Structures are given as C-alpha cells and as structure tokens.
C-alpha cells in the first residue's frame, strides 16, 4: 500500500526562505555580540594598560621629586642657583662641553643647582622638562662651614669631619660666588676629630672649567654632604618626554650612563609650581606656570637674590601627564582636546590637542601633587 502523497512532500520554498532568514538573523546577532564583546574586551585591556602606566609613571616621578633639595637646602645663600662644576676622571662633566643627549638637548649646558627647576616646552612635542637635585647623605642636613683661608688643592679644613668617609660626594660652595664644585672624599678617609678633609678619586678635581678649589678660600664657604659614589648616590636628574612617547631620565653626574627609559605611552608632561607667596607662611597659596614672570627657567637661573628667594618659595609641584594606548579602534574614542589642571584658574590650565589621526586611540590624563619637604626647612 503506497503512502499518501502529502507524506512525501518536503519543505516548501516559503518555509525554506523563512528558515534561512531566521538563521541569518541569528548568525548576524551572534556575530555582532561576539564583535562587541571583543571590542569591550580590547577596550578594558587598553584601559587597564593606561591605568598601570599612569600609576607607574606617577610613582617614578613622585619618588624622584619628593626628596628634592635633600643635602643642600640648608645653605640656600651659597647653594641655590650656583653653577655646578663637576668632573669625572679629570674630564669636565659640568658645565657640559656638549649638548645633553635627546630628549634634553635644549637644556642649557651650565647646570644651576636647585631642588627643582622646570624648563617649559623643552621636551618632545613641547612638553616640560624637570631638573631635580637630591642628596642622599643619610647624615645631618646642616652645611659645614669651611675655616677661612683653608681651601687649597685637594683639601679644605672643617671644625670636624665626623661621619665622613672615603668616596663621599660633597658640594663646596661660597656665599655670593655663584659657583660651586662637586668633590669626592679621598679613598680610605675616616672622619672624626680630624679637621682636614681630603679629596681624591674619579670625581675629584682641583680645577674645573677655570674654577679652582682654592677660589673658595675666602670666608662664608660651606661643605654640604650629598651622598657617596657607590652607595646612597646623589641624584641630579633631568626628566622629560622623548621619542616613542617615552619618559626618560638623564643623570647629570653620569653615575648611571646615558639617558634611561623609564615609562612608555606618555605623550605630554606639564608642571605647575606650588608657591608660598609673600608674606610667607609655609603653605602653598598660588599655582604658577613655569612660563610666568620670575619663574621661568631663565629667571630662576640668573643667580640673583630674587631667583634664590623664588626657588625657596616653591613648596610643591603639580604634575600633569597625558597618556595614550597602543590599541587602535575602528572609530574615534577620544575627544579632540584634553585639559590638564582644570581645577585651577583658566590661565594655569593646559589644553592638549589630540594629534590628527590618533582619536581612535584611547587617551588618559592624570595629575598628582608632590610636596617638596626639604625646601620647607631651607634657609
């Protein structure tokens, strides 16, 4: 007995078309969800990378800046703004005989000692460069007076040399001279009641760029202990943005050779000074750009009493960073401009314009304030 014809019939064309449409809709929906999930995942990963980079860069800068001025801020009249002379293996190190390596080639070769100094627009893309000086003596921050007339080749005379040892790095400076020298205590020296402090080693020299140790024989000369050549090294650093959106540091004393890459993904760095305006009360009451009158690098470097006073008035730094991810999205994910220091008056704010063609990459701004604890107790 044959089966009814209706039982041998398959799907009709209409039924097949409906099934195909449903299948295509489901496929499209699933594909869209997968693509959206992947985009979200990539965005989260990119955001996490920016968070990690910003936290790490902030930590590095805070570490370098927080102790600025340690070791020499208790003798501002002789130390602040002095032109530092240093040598290594009898070769002049400072003032530099050639331009500093990138990204610091625009920084003046005659380095003036200060806890911090900002060179506005001297870095890559017009970013700021920070010069920071920190001693790590581990001893008293009080400068030691040199007995008048005793500065001579290879030595000075102090009231005592307690705590000094071979390899220590000291700053020799004199009120009103506007020049200072880095010297290294001779190997094997052990301080105590002995009054004569002798110099020798790779970082010691009697004459550097025409300035002689004997020039400090006149009164009001001080010795400030900065650290040691092999342990507790002083850090005289330049910090700025260079090629490939990288934060670099450069050791002016070349205890660490060459420019060192610190963190990636940073496209801009801007700084504002936290200033204790007159009358002085030890608190920050104004934020000043490093392009403002009296606070430009040129003004802070002129060696005048006003520049020293202004350097003492800088009690903190507010640092703003702009970071960018490597991930490129299909559509724009960043607005055309970003603002740093938006809680400050308009004149102190900085507008960062996102470069053409990079709005498809994620940007992030981060700001932090670093108190300069040693400057608060300077005199």
Written overview of the protein:
The protein is α+β, with helices and mostly antiparallel strands and 379 residues long. Among the domains are: 50-78 and 235-377, no CATH class; 144-228. It is built from 4 helices and 21 strands. The protein has helices at 13-66, 76-79, 297-300, 305-313; strands at 83-88, 91-94, 116-119, 129-134, 144-145, 155-157, 168-174, 179-184, 196-198, 207-208, 211-212, 221-228, 235-242, 246-251, 259-264, 266-275, 286-288, 314-328, 337-340, 350-353, 361-371. It has a 6-stranded mixed beta sheet. It starts with 12 loop residues before the first helix and ends in an 8-residue tail after the last strand. The model has no long low-confidence stretch (mean pLDDT 89).
Q: What is the CA–CA distance across the termini?
A: 117 Å
What does the average pLDDT come to? 89
- Major β-sheet strand ordering: 2-1-8-7-12-5
Q: What is the tally of beta strands?
A: 21
Low-confidence sequence ranges? none
Overall geometric form: elongated
* Largest sheet report: 6 strands, mixed
Helix and strand composition category: alpha+beta
- Percent range of helical residues: 10-25%
The radius of gyration computed from the alpha-carbon positions, rounded to a whole number of angstroms, is 30 Å
Strand content: 25-35%
Number of helices: 4
Which H/E pattern describes the elements? HHEEEEEEEEEEEEEEEEEHHEEEE
Pfam family, one: PilW
Keywords: Membrane, Transmembrane, Transmembrane helix
Protein name: PilW family protein
């Amino acid at each position: 007995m044959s089966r009814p014809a209706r039982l041998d019939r398959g799907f009709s064309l209409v039924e097949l078309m409906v099934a195909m449409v449903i299948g295509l809709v489901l496929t499209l929906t699933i594909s869209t969800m997968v693509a959206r999930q992947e985009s979200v995942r990539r965005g989260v990963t990119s955001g996490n990378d920016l968070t990690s980079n910003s936290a790490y860069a902030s930590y590095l800068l805070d570490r370098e800046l927080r102790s600025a001025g340690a070791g020499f801020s208790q003798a501002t009249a002789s130390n602040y703004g002095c032109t530092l002379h240093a040598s290594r293996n009898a070769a002049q190190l400072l003032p530099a005989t050639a331009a500093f390596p990138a990204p610091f080639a625009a920084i003046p070769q005659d380095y003036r000692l200060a806890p911090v100094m900002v060179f506005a627009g001297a870095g890559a893309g017009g970013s700021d460069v920070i010069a920071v000086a920190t001693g790590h003596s581990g001893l008293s921050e009080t400068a030691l007076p040199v007995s008048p007339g005793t500065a001579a080749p290879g030595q000075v005379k102090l009231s005592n040399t307690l705590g000094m040892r071979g390899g220590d790095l000291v700053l020799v400076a004199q009120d009103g001279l506007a020049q200072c020298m880095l010297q290294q205590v001779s190997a094997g020296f052990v301080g105590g009641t002995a009054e004569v402090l002798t110099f020798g080693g790779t970082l010691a020299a009697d004459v550097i760029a025409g300035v002689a140790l004997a020039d400090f024989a006149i009164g009001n000369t001080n010795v400030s202990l900065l650290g040691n050549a092999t342990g507790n090294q002083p850090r005289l650093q330049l910090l700025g943005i260079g090629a490939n959106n990288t934060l670099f540091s450069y050791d002016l004393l070349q205890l660490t050779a060459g420019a060192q890459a610190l963190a990636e993904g940073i496209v801009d760095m801007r700084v504002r000074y936290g200033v204790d305006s007159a009358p002085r009360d030890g608190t920050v009451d104004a934020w000043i750009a490093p392009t403002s009158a009296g606070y430009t690098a040129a003004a802070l470097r002129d060696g005048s009493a006003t520049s020293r006073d202004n350097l003492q008035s800088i009690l903190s730094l507010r640092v703003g960073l702009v970071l960018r991810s490597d991930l490129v999205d299909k559509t724009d994910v960043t607005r055309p401009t970003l603002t740093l220091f938006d809680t400050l008056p308009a004149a102190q704010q900085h507008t960062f314009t996102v470069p053409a063609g990079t709005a498809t990459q994620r940007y992030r701004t981060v700001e932090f304030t670093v108190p300069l604890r040693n400057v608060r107790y300077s005199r």
